[in-house]
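Email to the structure team, subject: G-protein coupled receptors family 1 profile domain-containing protein model.

Hi all, the expression group asked for a predicted structure before they design truncation constructs. Nothing fancy, just the tokens so they can compare against earlier work. One-line instruction: predict G-protein coupled receptors family 1 profile domain-containing protein, return tokens.
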Amino acid sequence: MLNDIKEIFSRYCLIGLFLLGSIGLTLNTLIFTRPIFRQNSCVHYFLASTIANYFVVFFILPSRILSDGFNIDPGQYNLFYCKIRFYTYFTAKSLSSWFIVLACLDRKMSSSQYVHRRAFARPNVARWMIFFTTLIGLIFYSHVLIFYEIDQRQQCDARSGFYRLFNDSVYLIGYSLAPPLLMLLFGIWTIVNTRRLRRIVPRFGRRMATLNNQDHTLMLMLLLQVSLVSITAVPHAVQKLYSTLTLNVPKDDLTKAADNVFIVVVRTISFFNHSCTFYLLTLSGKMFRQELYKIMKKFICRSRHEGIHANLQLRTLTQTIKLNRTDPHSEIQQQ
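Reply from the structure team: attached below.
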């Protein structure tokens, strides 16, 4: 029974998440790069989070499918791959969430009644914030390149002792707890700012029109993101910390088997946050659905146009071949 559950999650669920993530991230990229969103600073953060998720879906997920689903793990004998894999794992997953935190901060600042605070919500500021956040993330997780190793069990893992406890604690706080709490804080702050502006509508009438359209959609997406990160990320981080704290505790075979299944299940659930954002978040916004409809309509029209053009070329070619075949006979009859 436990083996069946483990196989379902480690093989079929992970493969399904990979396929869903491939499609969803591609559509996210097409939507967030539309001309209408180029001057929207919040969408810049969504696009940056999507790019970080590319590394999770196309690099981390396949390695997990091989190791958890088919017991093929190059990290067991290749130290370089071991270090790069987990460095990418922690960096990409964390940056994906912290970019959404910045998007929440962007909405909070854009809803302020003070001009100098609203100046934060600009595309050029967003690009610089994305750059510095990425740089900080790459430097912060550089310790993984030093302290991850292949242990005596031929497993790629953090060095045992204090560092493993430190690494799991940082993962719990920096990825699972701090981002959703900050998202929630900035979200509530944005709602407070919006209500405050409604009391002074005559002065900020035009500003309120903007807040009631795109900003309302973006805030809905951000609140859904808080829920998604909390549900999918926290169990995996808690499991890692639990495994470290109970590493030297004697366990029977059934408990070990149950722990292994639990590890695979919560690890699979944690990838849900990075693979399915398009289906749960992007499609929740009306303006993003409209842009997706335009993209699909344009693609269908182009496909039809290319099909008609190809048919015309084929008919022209067929008629030309027929004429070339009939010309020699007509010449013989004339002779």
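The chain is about 80% helix and 0% strand. The chain has two domains: 2-284, 291-335. Ping us if the truncation boundaries need rechecking.
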